[in-house]
Amino acid sequence: MSLASWISNFVASITDTFGYVLPLTVLYLLYLIIRYPNRLVGTHSDRAYVWTVPGYPLIGNLVDVARRGTKKQFDHFLYLANSCPPGKPNFSWTVPPVGRIVFLNHPAYIEHIQKTNFNNYVKGDFLKNAFGDFIGTTGIFVTDGEEWKRSRKMASRVFSVGQFRRVVTTVVHEELHSVNGVLDAMTGEAGQGTIALPNLFFRYTLSSFAKMAFGADIQCLKPDPACLQEDVPFATAFDSAQEHINNRFTKPGWQLWEKYTPGGKQMVAWTKVMRDFARKIIDDRLMLLDLKEKARGEEMQDRGIAMGQSEAALNEKSQRAGMAPGDGNDKDLLGLFMDMTRDPEELLDVVLNFIIAGRDTTAQSLSWFFIELFAHPEHVQPILDEIALLFPSSATDTSTPNYLAYDDLRQLPYMQACLAESIRLHPPVPKNSKSALQDDVIVPLNSAGTSTTPPPVKVFKGEMVAWSDWVLARLPTVWGEDCAEYKPSRFLLADESGPGGWRFNSNLGPWKFHAFNGGPRLCLGMTLAYFEAMAVLTLILPKWDVKWAAPHEGQVCLGKRPPPAGRSAEEEQRDGWEWPPNYKSSLTHPCEDYSATFVRR
Ligand code: HEM
């Protein structure tokens, strides 16, 4: 029998048995598997420019993403970045429903995305959907185009006014008073005590932020250590919802999943607690404003009546709510935004967007700062010397707390460098992405603006580009061979006229030190974040010697990594760990909570 007649007999026997549909489907599947052997069906392969990380036929890298979850992925990104073949520093993977994601591993590409061709790269629906139920769909974080421009314009005005600066200073000093009270009571007469430090910082930033944003005291930080044990429903709901959203990014089809699982129902409940809380504050404030305006109107009509007791009472109420009497000086964020819009839903989104932007980021930076300081105690004395220049009495009298003024930030370059270096290594926004509106070739320019090293990258319409500041901080091509070392000197310039002979090095620019983003969407709260963090450090460091708590002192971050080799159980119990022995290795959040021992100086 010839080959042709054998094939025709074979096909005939198959179609006789199964009809046409099944064999054609199988053939089509085979074709798809051959066409997409290691990537998601329907995605582009761009072998010329980018290394495609091998995945499974038709589903791409889905298994990898689901298996690693959010916390283990950064090590893997770094591993992949270091595994890229020569000449192709970027890699891509494909995941449903997003499609192809191109991971960029050099600041020059990010500059192209966030500045040179800014309009082509948007946050897109993926992000809006993931965050929408939590912080709304109209806030600065999730919007693009004209909608984002409007939010940005409003927010920039707020950040540039002196009123906001005054409110920030007053609020931060109030919170420092509480932090000081907690630590004083905790160290007590013995002059020593142990505390869950990140918990304190999360409360410090949340409490400050609620006051700055709404003029509301949510009672999560008081000058009493007992407050650290109290549950704050708004904060609990906020934390839980935020963690839940993080997981959405590694769960394709999460919308469907959430419809039928308890996790989805919980998310609805958390969102309700949070939004109801914020909505009530906004409604009350809008009502007050209406009343005030009405009272003023009546006063205009009938001078002498409205200026009586009722106006005084309104002023008192409004002051308590964070608004200033009379001419409206010293307004909080909400007060300033209310000058621009009175739409309660829009105001709600504005405020929640700001809380998400400003609270965790600063608290995490502080938590990591101390972890680095425990590992590098040689930086403590230069910081103390610098504080002593600003607060001369602090070297001898540690009973009076230091309250840093907003305008004195520049007087602490060494401290700022230590903080910036820890933010570089542990960026609070460790990864980010954008969607391409049109096909594009990213042609990175060198400093002369001419040639193209690293090589160009092609991006197709609808694809995502992503980067990780955590990974970039650990690439020798970006920060040199000592990239993984904690070296605040990267952020210091010798300057005879500067405090302690230093000046903070801001010449690195937003693309190399990219933790605060760059281009038109540069973080609006950078100075505020430095102020909040440096103010609390100026209070704590001269007054207490802070150490990683030993297990017998109540370390809560135990068992997460092995103790150093060669130490007996008794020694470990007595001395604690030289923690973290391998803290440099990886994880973005090694320990959400850890304990620190404070010893009165
Ligand atoms: C160490 C602290 C902080 C870090 C590392 C940080 C970092 C960032 C980053 C990476 C972005 C870009 C996010 C994105 O586009 O997805 C961003 C945006 C933003 N940040 Fe910060 N941030 C910090 C603190 C703050 C604070 C205290 C505020 C005050 C409210 C703030 C306000 C904002 C706002 C409003 C945006 C949106 C800008 C826009 O899209 O136009 N940030 N920040």
Description:
It is a single chain. The chain folds into 2 domains: 36-135 and 433-467, no CATH class; 157-305 and 343-431 and 470-600, Cytochrome P450 (Cytochrome p450, Orthogonal Bundle). A hairpin with a 3-residue loop joins strand 2 (91-95) and strand 3 (99-103). The protein has helices spanning 3-18, 21-35, 62-68, 73-83, 107-116, 124-135, 145-160, 162-187, 197-214, 233-248, 254-260, 262-301, 309-320, 333-338, 344-375, 380-390, 413-425, 469-472, 476-479, 509-512, 526-543, 569-575, and strands at 51-52, 91-95, 99-103, 121-122, 192-196, 432-436, 440-442, 457-459, 464-467, 492-494, 502-504, 544-548, 595-600. It has 601 residues and is an alpha+beta fold. The chain contains 22 helices and 13 strands. The longest helix is centred in the middle third of the chain and has 40 residues, at 262-301. The strands form 4 sheets. A 6-stranded mixed sheet has the order 1-2-3-9-6-4. Strands 5-13-12 form a 3-stranded antiparallel sheet. 51% of the residues lie in helices and 8% in strands. It binds protoporphyrin IX containing FE (HEM).
